[in-house]
Amino acid sequence: MTEHSRTVTWSDPAALATAVRELSGLELFARIIAGELPTPSIGATVGFRLVEAEEGRVVFEGEWGEHLLNPAGGLHGGWYGLVMDSAMGCAVHSTLPAGTGYTTLEYKVNITRAVTADSGRLRAEGRVVHRGRRTATAEARVVDAAGKIYAHGSETCLILGG
Questions:
Q1: Which CATH architecture has domain 14-161?
Q2: What ranges make up the beta strands (E) of the chain?
Q3: Residue ranges per structural domain of the chain
Q4: Are 132 and 79 in contact (CB under 8 A)?
Q5: pTM for the whole structure
């Protein structure tokens, strides 16, 4: 049996946790993209990062790897759920003022195509479908550089505070 290893590094999450409470969603994401705030540690763990943000829309890019394979040799379905939950939740967060948070109530993921060694970098784009006072819904797609859809889904979030 050949062993492989992977080293993951991340920044202390305390500064990011403070910024989440003090900045609007768009301000927070702009600072993360600019490198002024650390990337959330989950991104380093599974290999994706925030690359675009505007009100109601965010994009993550990801590099998947063999450390994320299921026993059958395919990309674990949980990776799609994690990346798409991040994209959809952050799309909702991009509409929120400072001091207002959210939490995911539920999400659904449809995996439509297997990731292979030829798939390359994947993008998860989340968009708000509806933003009310207490709840919001969003949708996301995971696509490759050619625009092929690997997964799509939807989410409902509860808006907290504000």
A1: Roll (3.10)
A2: 48-54, 57-62, 100-111, 122-131, 135-143, 149-161
A3: 14-161
A4: no
A5: 0.94
